[in-house]
Amino acid sequence: MNISFWYQSLEKPFFAPPAEVFGIVWSILYPIIFISFGYVFYLILKDRIPSKVSIPFIVNLVANFSFSPIQFGLQNNILAMIDILIVFGSLIWAMKVIWKYSRGVAIAQIPYLLWVGFAMILQISITWLNFK
Q1: What is the pTM of this model?
Q2: DSSP class of residue 10?
Q3: Structural domain boundaries in the chain
Q4: What pLDDT, in 10s, does the model give residues 66-123?
Q5: For the packed helices 54-68 and 19-45, what is the interaxial angle rounded to 10 degrees?
Q6: For 75, which DSSP code?
Q7: What is d(CA 40, CA 72) in angstroms, rounded to the nearest whole number?
Q8: Collapsing DSSP states into helix, strand and coil, what is residue 44?
Q9: Considering 21, 26, 90, 117, which has the largest number of Cβ atoms within 10 A of its Cβ?
Q10: CA–CA distances in Å: residue 85 to residues 2, 60, 82, 103, 116
Q11: 78 Cβ partners below 8 Å, 6+ apart?
Q12: Cα–Cα dist 123/116, whole Å
């Protein structure tokens, strides 16, 4: 089944934005993520912060980049919902862990956190509305 058709055929909540919004938002968020997460890994490589600080950032990146293949490749709303919960939880974890070393990095994640919170509610709603 065509991925676009599959997603368009899903029942969505009234607050689901048009598809174009996702591209716009991610084109703003990915540079923020790249720079701030890159800075964290730079600090780790320079031994300025413990390497264990990288764990929630790695979990977040893996879960974030896994979402589209799960949602659109596997076309599995339940796994996509679990994945977005991991993205959200690992981001909160990352913000908490980095706060004592770089408040700027933690604060830079606020737009990402807000968007992922919205995306999580959207995905939970889509999963619920299309549960069969």
Answers
A1: 0.94
A2: S
A3: 24-129
A4: 999 999 999 999 999 999 999 999 999 999 999 999 999 999 999 999 999 999 999 9
A5: 150
A6: -
A7: 30
A8: helix
A9: 90
A10: 26, 10, 5, 24, 9
A11: 127
A12: 10
